[in-house]
Specification:
16% strand
Length: 211
């Protein structure tokens, strides 16, 4: 079992990474492989709605890490997406990254996100965490991904990594999140091994609220 932890902060080893790394360490203790993936600090363009991914099964733009991530996603069993708070919302880079990754991902034959566990982790100095948490979770809800929760909303507080490490409740929340995700992954694996099939899928119906 493998979980990929996506760091949406422009700082590779900042507060968001510190929270994600606590999740990663605990996942490994639970026997789950954990891999960090940093989206970088260069510009990430947003989705332009060209729908070329319908034919390409990847994003038409190949100048950042979106397609690299999609190649890895198919072999993963779970995901944790982390973001700092920017103006009481997720950062612009991770928002653009997820817009394109999820839109193109649902057009891939390997269905990299379908029924795979997901969680959001949010880092802030002080406020805006719950709005950011809600924003990130909406991606998972749309993609039929079971959302893994913890003993509190998945957030840490601090201005720098050392501050985050002193957030005792926040760090414990990260460890609980990891254990909950590991438990879910093991339950899913056991179910599939014992003949429990994935849900029946219907051809999806699209409407524009008029017809």
């Amino acid at each position: 079992m493998k979980v990929i932890l996506v760091n949406g902060s422009p700082h590779e080893k900042g507060c968001t990474y510190t929270a994600l790394d606590e999740v990663a360490k605990t996942l490994r203790e639970e026997g789950v492989e954990a891999v960090h993936f940093w989206i970088g600090n260069q510009a990430v363009r947003g989705c332009i709605g060209c729908c070329r991914c319908d034919d390409l099964h990847r994003c038409v733009f190949d100048d950042d890490k979106v397609n690299e991530f999609l190649k890895l996603a198919g072999d993963c069993d779970g995901f944790v997406f982390g973001s700092p708070v920017h103006w009481a919302a997720a950062g612009g880079a991770i928002t653009s990254f997820m817009d394109r990754a999820f839109y193109a991902g649902q057009r891939r034959e390997d269905m990299p996100f379908y029924l795979k566990s997901a969680a959001a982790v949010v880092s802030a100095r002080r406020a805006g965490t719950t709005a950011t948490y809600d924003q990130l979770n909406k991606y998972f809800g749309l993609m039929q991904m079971p959302i893994i929760s913890s003993q509190y909303w998945n957030m840490v507080h601090g201005r720098c990594p050392d501050d985050v490490r002193q957030d005792a409740e926040g760090m414990q929340t990260m460890r609980t999140l990891a254990r909950n995700m590991a438990f879910f992954l093991k339950c899913k694996e056991t179910a599939l091994q014992n003949g429990v099939s994935l849900p029946k899928r219907e051809e999806q119906i699209y409407t524009n609220f008029i017809r």
